[in-house]
Amino acid sequence: MSVREVNFDGLVGPTHNYSGLAHGNVASMSHEGLVANPREAALQGLEKMKSLMDAGYVQGVLPPQQRPDLGALRDLGFAGSDAQVLARAADEAPQVLRAVCSASSMWTANAATVTPSVDAPDGRAHFTPANLQSSFHRYLEPATTGRVLASIFADEARFAHHPVLPATPAFSDEGAANHTRLAGDHGEPGVHLYVYGRQAFGGDGIAPRRYPARQTLEASQAVARQHGLSDAQTVFAQQHPEAIDAGVFHNDVIAVGNGPVLLYHEVAFRDEQGTLDALRERMASPLIPVRVPVEAVSLDDAVASYLFNSQLLSNPDGTMTLVVPGECQEREAVWRCLQDHLLAGHNPISEVVVKDVKQSMRNGGGPACLRLRVALSEAERAALSGRVLLDDALHGELVAWVERHYRDRLAPADLADPALASETLAALDELTGLLRLGSVYPFQR
Length: 445
Description:
The chain has helices at 26-30, 38-54, 70-75, 82-92, 94-100, 136-139, 142-152, 217-226, 241-245, 272-282, 299-305, 327-330, 332-343, 358-361, 378-382, 392-405, 418-435; strands at residues 4-10, 58-62, 112-115, 125-129, 159-161, 179-182, 191-196, 234-238, 255-258, 261-265, 288-292, 311-314, 320-325, 349-355, 371-376. It is α/β, with parallel strands linked by helices. The strands form five sheets. A three-stranded mixed sheet has the order 2-1-15. It has a three-stranded mixed sheet with strand order 3-4-5. Strands 6-7-8 form a three-stranded mixed sheet, sandwiched between helices.
């Protein structure tokens, strides 16, 4: 069975802007109010996808959400025509308007948690969309995310879809940004590392003080139960509170794993040794931990550069490629760590590839945020619905689509423009035709 990892990247939406909505995300907060370039953002994402496809990796595409979410504004009491709804929201609740225009679905690491069929007791790949209840602008995403995933992974004999967890603080779920699957290779049964920031019921009360912990232990446990995973297949580890207070709002900002390799910062886990011991005990193949000490890279440098929000990709010869954002070159300590500690160390990481995703980075999302990983067999890849696996033809059509529909300048004040809403609906309607997804958006239903 040829099992390969498919990276499904989120297309950056036409309303990409810098509204500073994500409390605890240092980059998002520090760039609030700047003018964004949605066209450049989408093209940067597509260039990254194309370069990985050209390098031999299987690359998929996921569509953005319908934004602005006029339905959400109407649910909140704003009435009238679309233009009137937008104008009133801009006047009375500008932060709410910014939230319903967010292009945050581009970070598909938060879209869902996925268990491949090789690990599931029923032999199907399992999907649970994240409830993202910790922030209003992301709480709006799961319904459309679920429809998109059900449209693509439609074969019920091969794929299973689970309901979103209750959208309450006790079951706060941020998806695969806090989940890592480790195994000797993608076809080998794996161990699932779930990282949480706090415990809702019980626990010792140790949690971050400055920024909120977005993932609960209870949510991670519920997803594992939905997917039928046993205790022997799972490890639940608490993220270090100091890391969260430094701006590490998800585990994928401080650790990244693939195959048998876990690349992590010294302050990633509250119980570093206990986490490693539990993984070693459960894995069929030896764990290869790659630890970056705080003396090499400070927490501030890790957050500013998004070193650990890089994509770690497996190669057929057993080596690994690390795809890092350009900001890693701008931090001397980080770049030195990449050259002297990682590439020169005794580990499978043999290549570092630098990608410009600056438009995303300014909102707090690096290469790893932009993709949802799904390990699929050849038969499962053949069973996918729609036209979502990237090839040269689809890439060319998507680039042309972006250039037709996207603005090259968008400030927060522009979000009230009713023409932007009309432009976005026209773009998304065309996109669902290109990707052959059917009617996944509210305005199409």
